[in-house]
Amino acid sequence: MRELIWANLKARPVRTLLSVAAVALQVFLLLFMMGMTTGIVREWGERIEGIGADLLVQQPGASMFLAFSRAVLPEQMGRELESLAGVESVAPVLAVVNNDSLTIIYGIDFESFNRLGRGFLFHQGGPFEQPNDVIVDDIKAASKNLKVGDTVQLLEHDFRVVGIVEHGRGARFFIPLRTAQELLDVRTVSMFWVQASQDPAQVQERITQVYPRHVVRRMDEYLSMMVSSNLPEIKPFTRAIIVVGLIITFLVVLLSTYTVVLERTREIGILKALGASRWAIVGLLLQEALLVAAIGAAVGVASSYGVEAVVTWLRPSLQVDITFDWVVQGVLLAVLGCVLGSVYPAFRAAAADPVSALAYE
After folding, report:
1. pLDDT (tens digit, 9 = 90+) per residue, 204-233?
2. Count of CB atoms situated within 10 Å of the CB of 149
3. Predicted confidence (pLDDT) per residue in 55-87, tens digit
4. Is the same domain home to 86 and 196?
5. 350 and 287 in one domain?
6. Of 91, 199, 237, 339, which residue is most buried, by most CB within 10 angstroms?
7. Does 183 lie in the same domain as 280?
């Protein structure tokens, strides 16, 4: 029976390759897209952790994704926060997205931001000297071949690179807060990073009492949410990828298996005339579908890791994190799609009358 399954697959190599490609595409789409999402979220969480703050204060209803934080908080709120017991320092930040590359830029007050955590670790250069200066992290500098003294265009303006720092301070680019405000024509900020001298939970409670409508998050709370499966914004995207992959695999395997049943009507009739039961016929076709699923899943997983290596090499700033959990889910979904696609043709073949099947031309 095993030899018959392989012979059936090799008899129509083009059709088999198309079925395998459909399964591989489903697995690749799921693994690579979710791997890229997981990698970006994980890397973003690591950068937030590297800032060294204990608390994050945002406007009411603010998103976890800081790029979507509107600049509506008055700067004077920072001084009010500093006056609260247990607050050691407060750093205002204006988060801006560079439209050309969708890169997040932080407009910062260098002195207050540098007091958070361990501060900036400079590889080259130093702090801001002029309004149009920019500090770049080492990963972005390496990917763009930037060095101190070079010019880089951000927000449709030219900036001079004055420092290259260790990555992991929230953003890739840092410009003076006043410059960012002038470019956006605002006098407000997007968020405040707070460093506490006491228990952050107690400081969080004090801030919440003064600003009950604002979003006040402790860093341990924020980082615990930095998992792609926990983010409500990611779930519809995940479901869409899964549904599209299942539909592709289901339709391709359904059409392929149905065509196989039509072409092998006489063969099925011979098997039934020799005593093969209905379940034996169903099992034969399902085993063929499972073999296609296994080969396709293997190709899809291998392709995902191969593309991950290439992308990481070409774009060091883009993280792809293919986890074992998603590999298992991808393989199971591939098997499910193949089984669902082959069930109807298999039972249709099993129900065929052997006499009519033997007379089929």
Report:
1. 999 999 999 999 999 888 877 766 555 656
2. 10
3. 999 998 877 666 666 778 999 999 999 999 999
4. yes
5. yes
6. 91
7. no
State whether 272 and 182 are in the same domain.
Answer: no
Number of domains in the chain: 2
What angle do helix axes 2-11 and 13-51 make, rounded to 10 degrees?
90
Residue 193 φ/ψ, nearest 5 degrees = -95, 130
| Domain region containing 10 | 2-42+233-358
